[in-house]
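REVIEWER CHECKLIST
Item 1: Sequence provided? yes
Item 2: Single chain? yes
Item 3: Sequence as submitted:
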Amino acid sequence: MYEKSGIDWWKNWFIQFPELFEFFPAWFIVSIALTLLEVVLYMRSRQDTEEPAFVSPAESLILTEEQTALNSAPVKSRIVMIESIQQYKTIYRLTPEGISEEIARKTFEELTVDAGNTLLLVHKSFMVAPDLIERIQRDGRDYSLVLKHIKKPIPISRNKLEDVRALLL
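Item 4: Structure as written out by the authors:
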């Protein structure tokens, strides 16, 4: 065995592999190594394409009439969108400072009542404020919504597409 107290112990860490194979089966070590590699590659791919999900007020130097009205409005926040991931709901609120995110463990029905029944269910995982829909965009067979103040496209289920189109007309 080599001495770990020296400076170069980290260069020879792989010398320990034969001892690992004595304690753990080879398939276990290989599966752990592949899992770690998959995690590293996934994190690198997300790091390259990660964009903020919202448009901050500082990005636009020219204020439109709507932005001016929002800035002069009372400080009350407004729900723009709710995203569901399993039992957790991410609530995106429009505030004078920009978009804020809040995570809650409530059902869509409870959140709809809290929002005053103003939200539209466009997908099993997304509810949006209908007056903030800018347009519908198509990507192959799939459709998604583009909302004001949100960069992230919101998917629309096929059975809700006609309802959303009728709302926009």
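Item 5: Key structural point noted by reviewer: Residues 58-62 have pLDDT under 50 and may be disordered.
Item 6: Recommendation: ____
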